[in-house]
Amino acid sequence: MAIIIDAIAMAYTVIISFDELLAPPPALRSATVKLSIQMLDLFFIGSEIANVGIAFWSKSKIRPEAPRRAYIRQNALISVLMVALVAWQVTFSIGLIRIFKRIDNRNQDRKRAANRG
Question: What is the reported pTM?
Answer without folding.
Answer: 0.74
